[in-house]
Amino acid sequence: MTTPLLDIRDLHVEADGSPVIHGVNLSIPIGETHVLFGPNGSGKSSLLATIMGLAPYRVTSGEIWFKGQRIDALPVDKRAQMGLGMSFQRPPALEGVTVEAFTAAIGSSALLESEASALDFNGFAERDVNAGFSGGEIKRWEILKLLLKRPDLSLFDEPESGVDLEHIAAVGKAIDRLLGADTPADPQRTALVITHTGFILDYIHADVGHLMVDGRIVGSADPRTLFSHIKAHGYSMPPVTANVSQTI
Amino acid sequence: MATLLGADITPEEKQQLAPVGYSIEGEHSATCVLVDQDVRHIAVNDPDVEILPLKDALTRYDWVQDLMFKLINPTENDHVAQAAESRHAPVGHFIRVRKGAKVRLPVQVFTLLETPQGRQFHHNITVIEEGAEVEMISGSAVPPSVHAGHHLSISETYLREGATCRSVSIEHWGPAMEVHSYARTHVGTNARVIESNIQVSPVKHHYSQSRTVIEDGGVSNDQSVIFAPAGTGRVMESEIHLKGVNARSESIARMVTGGGTITNRTTLVGEGRDTKGFLGCNGLKLSDEGEILSVPALRARSAQAQLSHEASIGMIDQAKLSYLMASGMSEDAARDLIVQGFLNLDAQQLPEAIRVEVSRTIAAANSGAL
Ligand SMILES: Nc1ncnc2c1ncn2[C@@H]1O[C@H](COP(=O)(O)OP(=O)(O)O)[C@@H](O)[C@H]1O
Ligand SMILES: [Mg+2]
């Protein structure tokens, strides 16, 4: 068996002194897209932020491994440089930092124009990053930001919430492209996606769904089956398949 | 067809002035360089622009004497009094832009202090005549070998009725220098002044005092970009008088301390009817060292003056840093981007060479300070 790209072992996390993750185990093999479902406040955003290394999340026990290296003590820039990237749920507004300046600072100026047009984001080069963007514009920028960098493992925190119907397909397709739909010869790109609405499942090929409740992953299943069950019965596991490995 | 006065400046001097805006003289309507206590070099390519050493202007035009010490009180303080009572002929430039001229290329004016522990004392007078329009770049610099010295300047600028002046000034003094500057501007009826002031390089103590009086329908817009690395102290005191009916002003200061101290006192005075003015003072503190004191004041003398201000001082937000670092930027690069964004250099419409120099200076001081 090959080493998974991301491997989380019995992870416990607190934020500003409050425990928020209580023993999560999660493995994502290279090239797979996993989806995280769960009620509000169940710890989904906390888990993604902890993988990325953002404050105020602090690992109290357990381990996070990425590309065979332990990363839970690394600063956020080192993790990003190793190939992690995240589309934020509520990113900060960066007054004075234009989209153009940001893009230059990550060395991707040459890609901006073409990537922006796919997300209907042309004309934003002079705008300040996330400052005065609408909810949907923020989401489109967050995806564009990842397209400019093409991380090996992309973390998406509710990438489609707040996106208007007119742009939902563009966002879905952009994520699909980011995950390698345009480069079938390179099936390496991997993702962990939080979704509330499930819309995103119509656009990407998701391999595994996980259900998170109260800071724990309580079960994993085929993502579409799991989402249909949640829609009909609320946040619980479908009865037949408690373990995804039995279904695929 | 350039009119030349004095000697040329050397290639080394050109190189020292480039980061504060000096560029090809043929692309400017006029160039003037003051070195130590000399008006070293004047080159004029446009008949609508006249530049003379002030002492020559005083004898050539009998009205120039009446412009001197008119906007500044000769007993204002010891520095100014010393200048007013000096037996020596004044050193400085006289710039005149003729009535109605729309000067196409910018005028560039520079000051160099080349002697270590030199004493420099300048009095400059500028007159933009009725309806004239001009763009000015002014810069001050020292060669790398000069650390200490004293520069003192008085400037009196007149914008006559309907005149427009856009100016950018940038200063790059030695780290152990003392600098005192007194600037007075008279914005005539329906005249407009748009000004950017950039002070970002290390200097021991810089005191700058300015006073702008705006007549009926006149407009003043100024933006200051202020950075104080460790060891630098800056004190700015400015007054803007909305004197005439419908006079307007907007004054924005962006101040960053990387360990130095900045004091900024700005007073906006609404005297005329239907005047409108705004002061914006934003400070950013990069570490626990240093201090920013920001004192914006409003004084309304007319019931129809509409005055407002906004002031804030903060630290770099950790969430913003992490956000940038999550895209792979190092902490230093992320800080730089935030600081430069805060200073909003793009909005100043700076010449490229100046923008690059400012970014470089801040980046250098920034990484040194951490
Ligand atoms: N900085 C914080 N300080 C204290 N509690 C926090 C902090 N961030 C998140 N939490 C708590 O952690 C729990 C999980 O939050 P979150 O990860 O945002 O949930 P989800 O994304 O699943 O809606 C919530 O109870 C939330 O209040
Ligand atoms: Mg969340």
From TrEMBL, chain A:
<protein>
    <submittedName>
        <fullName>Fe-S cluster assembly ATP-binding protein</fullName>
    </submittedName>
</protein>
<comment type="similarity">
    <text>Belongs to the ABC transporter superfamily. Ycf16 family.</text>
</comment>
<dbReference type="InterPro" id="IPR027417">
    <property type="entry name" value="P-loop_NTPase"/>
</dbReference>
<dbReference type="Pfam" id="PF00005">
    <property type="entry name" value="ABC_tran"/>
</dbReference>
<feature type="domain" description="ABC transporter">
    <location>
        <begin position="6"/>
        <end position="239"/>
    </location>
</feature>
<dbReference type="InterPro" id="IPR010230">
    <property type="entry name" value="FeS-cluster_ATPase_SufC"/>
</dbReference>
<dbReference type="GO" id="GO:0016887">
    <property type="term" value="F:ATP hydrolysis activity"/>
</dbReference>
<dbReference type="InterPro" id="IPR003593">
    <property type="entry name" value="AAA+_ATPase"/>
</dbReference>
<dbReference type="InterPro" id="IPR003439">
    <property type="entry name" value="ABC_transporter-like_ATP-bd"/>
</dbReference>
<dbReference type="GO" id="GO:0005524">
    <property type="term" value="F:ATP binding"/>
</dbReference>
<keyword id="KW-0067">ATP-binding</keyword>
<keyword id="KW-0547">Nucleotide-binding</keyword>
UniProtKB/TrEMBL annotation, chain B:
<dbReference type="InterPro" id="IPR000825">
    <property type="entry name" value="SUF_FeS_clus_asmbl_SufBD_core"/>
</dbReference>
<dbReference type="Pfam" id="PF01458">
    <property type="entry name" value="SUFBD_core"/>
</dbReference>
<feature type="domain" description="SUF system FeS cluster assembly SufBD core">
    <location>
        <begin position="117"/>
        <end position="342"/>
    </location>
</feature>
<dbReference type="InterPro" id="IPR037284">
    <property type="entry name" value="SUF_FeS_clus_asmbl_SufBD_sf"/>
</dbReference>
<dbReference type="GO" id="GO:0016226">
    <property type="term" value="P:iron-sulfur cluster assembly"/>
</dbReference>
<dbReference type="InterPro" id="IPR055346">
    <property type="entry name" value="Fe-S_cluster_assembly_SufBD"/>
</dbReference>
<protein>
    <recommendedName>
        <fullName>SUF system FeS cluster assembly SufBD core domain-containing protein</fullName>
    </recommendedName>
</protein>
<comment type="similarity">
    <text>Belongs to the iron-sulfur cluster assembly SufBD family.</text>
</comment>
